[in-house]
């Protein structure tokens, strides 16, 4: 079951990233983040009220608050890195954050078997290659590398924090609600600061009302991915759940191939194949 929920996480995150990438072609990235997460907060709020999730409130919610503070910082650093440097470097490098939840699992006493260790190595290599790493070209700015690493370890930290934020289904809804409740104003402040620096918050034709369904999908898919990851981490080894959940760049690349007819480079196709092999090894182990 761990493998199933973790793979569902990678599918949802991959599709959310694909949708977010399409939306940011017309709408500023920070606006996409704030609007999509605001929709997610509204839906989660209704779920929490309907399920009586407030009864699960406790000290563990501070993990959700921390995840809500770290998440937007990581996302902003990631978008900034994408703006400064080649995506072929930033995208695969951004997956190294999986080291955080894997490290937490090891510290908690998890010891993957030999087959799983091999599966982890193969899957991580596959994800890096699926991002289409840029092996030649102009030197990458040191600032780009630094921002990407901050983003990567920020995402990994959110993985680890949200897994500790709840132990029941109703508690999970509440934790995800609190996380997004913190993320939205944090992202809003970043958007306000961006506007103050003279950058546009909306497209030239105004608020993207026609994109609301897509924005809702991005926000809700992201929330659902967090939820399935928590279930995966609670039902099995965090080391396995984290690596399988980090396969989302493969999903994004395949979605671009299927919907936009983007051709996969040879290195990307090889990476997708290795990621699949690593998945099988992890599930078998």
UniProtKB/TrEMBL annotation:
InterPro entries registered for this protein in UniProt: EamA_dom, EmrE-like
SUPFAM superfamilies found in the cross-reference section: Multidrug resistance efflux transporter EmrE (SSF103481)
Transmembrane segments: 28-49, 61-82, 113-132, 144-163, 238-260, 267-284
Annotated PANTHER family: ACYL-MALONYL CONDENSING ENZYME-RELATED
Pfam families according to UniProt: EamA (PF00892)
Name of this chain's protein: EamA domain-containing protein
Domain annotation EamA: ranges: 3-130, 144-282
Keywords per UniProt: Membrane, Transmembrane, Transmembrane helix
Family note: Belongs to the EamA transporter family.
Taxonomy, superkingdom: Bacteria
GO cellular component, one term: membrane
